[in-house]
Structures are given as C-alpha cells and as structure tokens.
Amino acid sequence: MKKHDGRSIRINNYDYFSSGGYFITPCVRDRLRVLCDIVDRNIRLRGPGNIAQSCWNKITGHFSNVVLDESVVMPDHIHGIIITDSGNICDTNIDMGNLSSISSARPAKNSRS
C-alpha cells in the first residue's frame, strides 16, 4: 500500500470556504484500527466507532450551513461528504481550547503484551 507522501493535495488558489460538496476522510492517529471490525463484509462498530458516528451525525447541530450526505466508518478512518449551502460554514462560536489535549490522547498499551 502506498503511503501519503505528506504533500498537500489541495487545489492551489481554491477557496475551501466556498459552497459545495466536500469529500473528507478523517483518520485515526497512527492509523490504529479501533473504529470497527469488518466481519463477513459487514461493518461492526466498536465503542470508538460509535462515538465517531455519533459525532458525525451531530455536525449539523454545530454548523447551521452544513448538510451531511453519505458517510461510512472504516477501521481506521471515516469517509464522508459534507455539503455547505452558504459561503461561510464557520458561523458558530466554537471553543477550540482543548483540541491539543484531545489530539494528543493515545490508547493505553496493554501491559500484558
């Protein structure tokens, strides 16, 4: 599997705040496979996967100018389509103060392994 080389795949000079549909893929840190299991071609969400799906479903409660389209939780990432219906989706005052503590959180290692 080819890994992403770290270069930006964004289109130069494109206004990503403009209206439109955006396909996004948030990934789990270190690509840990913690969100779900795939058994007999069926997705079975784990606890973190249920939380991720719940958070996805609540996006429209935080951003009034956003409509959610299809999404799917995979073992180490989520695919989703977000449609913005006006030029500025950031019309909500959000406290971003605790993001660093969330993004630095890691699962505990099993001491028996």
Report on the structure:
The model is unreliable at 96-113 (pLDDT under 50). It contains 3 helices and 5 strands, in the order βββααββα. By secondary structure, it is α+β, with helices and mostly antiparallel strands. Helix content is 18%, strand content 25%. It is globular.
How do the SSEs run, as a string of H and E? EEEHHEEH
Number of helices: 3
Radius of gyration: 16 Å
First-residue to last-residue Cα separation: 27 Å
Structural class of the secondary elements? Answer: alpha+beta
The fraction of residues assigned to DSSP E strands is 15-25%
Main attributes of the structure:
alpha+beta, 3-stranded antiparallel sheet, 5 strands, globular
Short description:
This protein has helices at residues 47-57, 59-62, 99-103, and strands at 20-24, 36-39, 42-45, 66-73, 78-84.
Which secondary structure elements does this structure contain, and how are they paired or packed?
Blueprint (H helix, E strand, L loop, with lengths): L19 E5 L11 E4 L2 E4 L1 H11 L1 H4 L3 E8 L4 E7 L14 H5 L10
Antiparallel strand pairs: 1-5, 2-3, 4-5
